[in-house]
């Protein structure tokens, strides 16, 4: 006899939300966004033809039917967890997720967070390749392509997951040697440039109303990650994108001497080939990126 099973990711979201009593806490446990949990619960409600939660502004309450359903579903997840701990490693079939992203973004934002994704989803093997080619110029097809945006490419669905701004950053040791009390003090410092982004410093100086400032020296690199490393090493001051330097600011490797002005910057988006956007693993990874992007924005807010 054929089994009738609900969508398992939706069931997992319902179990976590019902057990924790919160969509927000369920999202944190599952490493997805609040919206993803809400979407999965709505899918399960449509599949069952019944309401599972009563929504009251910022809180949700299980319906009487959902309380009974959770009482049976919850122990099944616990049994599944215990069985997997005993035998699952022998039977696990991993799914490979191919991702293409810019090198500096991968090095400074994605890689430090991938361990968290792997811990929550050990059955997903993430294969990351780096490239700065445009989405339409890629010779291979990837499950997820990360690029700036928002842009529209034929044959791809786009979702924004991370916004950022740019502001001057440098090492604490450099500030001890040459303090920066006002933007005009930059004339005593070396300004670090990236050849592919020549307008960053001129635009920031114009916004700070000191366009005529002449620094003590300038140093230009061909890759942006080299520019940021030079700032960490105390060689000079770089225009740092807030998302990509958030870990360095939190760890004290870099400081931001001026909270403003800030230059606007393009956002990071995921581009997924049409026909794959409903894939469970791709939905999971996209939702995780959006959750981490939200956390990153909170950490770097002025």
Characteristic terms for this protein:
three-stranded antiparallel sheet; 43% helix; single chain; 3 domains; five-stranded mixed sheet; D-Maltodextrin-Binding Protein, domain 2; elongated; alpha/beta; Arc Repressor Mutant, subunit A; 302 residues
Could you explain how this protein is built, in words?
The chain is an alpha/beta fold and 302 residues long. It has three domains: 8-91, Arc Repressor Mutant, subunit A (Orthogonal Bundle), CATH 1.10.10.10; 95-163 and 268-299, D-Maltodextrin-Binding Protein, domain 2; 165-264, 3-Layer(aba) Sandwich (D-Maltodextrin-Binding Protein, domain 2), CATH 3.40.190. The protein is built from ten helices and twelve strands. The protein has helices spanning 8-20, 23-30, 34-48, 64-91, 103-120, 172-177, 200-207, 224-232, 246-251, 280-299, and strands at 53-56, 59-62, 95-101, 124-130, 144-149, 156-162, 165-169, 190-194, 217-221, 238-241, 263-264, 267-273. The chain has a five-stranded mixed β-sheet with strand order 4-3-5-12-6, with helices on one face. The chain has a three-stranded antiparallel β-sheet with strand order 10-7-11. The protein has a two-stranded antiparallel sheet with strand order 1-2. α2 packs across α3 (34-48).
């Amino acid at each position: 006899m054929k089994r009738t099973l609900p969508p398992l990711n939706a069931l997992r979201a319902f179990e976590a939300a019902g057990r924790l009593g919160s969509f927000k806490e369920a999202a944190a446990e599952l490493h997805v966004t609040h919206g993803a949990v809400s979407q999965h619960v709505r899918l399960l409600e449509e599949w069952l033809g019944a309401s599972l939660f009563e929504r009251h502004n910022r809180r949700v309450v299980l319906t009487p039917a959902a309380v009974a359903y959770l009482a049976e579903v919850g122990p099944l997840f616990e049994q599944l967890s215990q069985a997997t701990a005993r035998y699952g490693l022998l039977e696990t079939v991993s799914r490979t997720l191919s991702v293409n992203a810019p090198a500096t973004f991968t090095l400074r934002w994605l890689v430090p967070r991938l361990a968290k994704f792997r811990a929550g989803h050990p059955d997903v093997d993430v294969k990351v390749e780096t490239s700065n080619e445009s989405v339409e110029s890629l010779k291979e097809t990837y499950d997820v392509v990360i690029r700036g945006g928002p842009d529209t490419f034929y044959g791809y669905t786009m979702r924004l997951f991370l916004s950022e701004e740019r502001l001057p950053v440098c090492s604490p040791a450099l500030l001890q040697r040459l303090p920066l009390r006002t933007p005009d003090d930059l004339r005593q410092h070396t300004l670090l440039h990236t050849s592919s982004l020549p307008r960053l410093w001129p635009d920031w100086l114009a916004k700070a109303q000191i366009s005529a400032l002449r620094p003590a020296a300038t140093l230009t690199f061909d890759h942006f990650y080299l520019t940021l490393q030079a700032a960490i090493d105390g060689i000079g001051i770089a225009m740092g994108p807030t998302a990509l330097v958030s870990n360095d600011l939190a760890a004290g490797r870099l400081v931001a001497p001026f909270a403003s002005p800030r230059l606007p910057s393009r956002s990071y988006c995921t581009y997924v080939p049409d026909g794959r956007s409903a894939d469970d693993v791709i939905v999971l990874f996209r939702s995780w990126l959006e959750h981490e992007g939200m956390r990153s924005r909170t950490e770097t807010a002025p």
